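Why does residue order matter? Because the sequence determines the fold. Keep that principle in mind as you read this record.
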Amino acid sequence: MRWNDHDKQQLRTLYLEERLPIAEIAQRLSRTTASVNTILTSFGIPRLRSLPRLRMPTSITPALARIHAHVCGDGHLIHNREKDCYGYLAPYRQGYYRWRYGVGYTNTKRILIDAFIADVREVFNLQPRYEAKNWMVTVKSKPVWELLKRLGAGKSRSWFIGEEIRVASRVIQATWLHAFFDDEAHFDPQGRIRVRSVNRQGLEQAASMLRLFVPCHLTPQQGLYPDHSCYLVVSARSRNTFFQLIGSSKFPQPIPAKPTEFP
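Structure:
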């Protein structure tokens, strides 16, 4: 059966706008895949690259907890409108726009960037893309965006820890705290571990999990600093316990305890 102009226009729409697989297009148009390929070649249209198959988790795993913590720490959610006429399909998609969803993570420590990439591969079967000279990576996926947003990821003042993470096992909670403190913690000369944030609600949830492992407190007790920030603090006497139970990529080993002094 010969291709008429109507069939060819329908093929363009299904392939370039709806981005359907060739096998599905052939089924809709009652054609063979070989015939569809031949017409696309005659148009001079390159084939769409096959995308990795997204895998969505069915439960909270340590890797997913780390991803969520990193997005709450030094990460961000992506939700913006951009042109959809780039790359080798640009001549065929002038004037098209779409909303893009995803997550980004920024850190100058290569070990944390590499760990984030490995976790995204493990959990979602996706390959993050490097941005900004290899200190930021992004993952473009609406299902991933929706999942992390549902679990509490968001802007600096509004992120929270979803109940699924807060009631998970101690391993999951310790994993979340480890990743979050890797991004946000400051180890001061007095021996304290401090996290400063403008999101008191989020820090209160983090503190409630952290108290299962080590004592901690929020300061100030009432009111906030002029920039509306507050601190989550682990005292110097609990520092080694934190390293032993939570761990840190900044200081992999606990600091040796000072020898006991006798009178």
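Strands lie at 75-83, 97-106, 129-131, 136-140, 185-187, 193-197, 217-219, 230-234.
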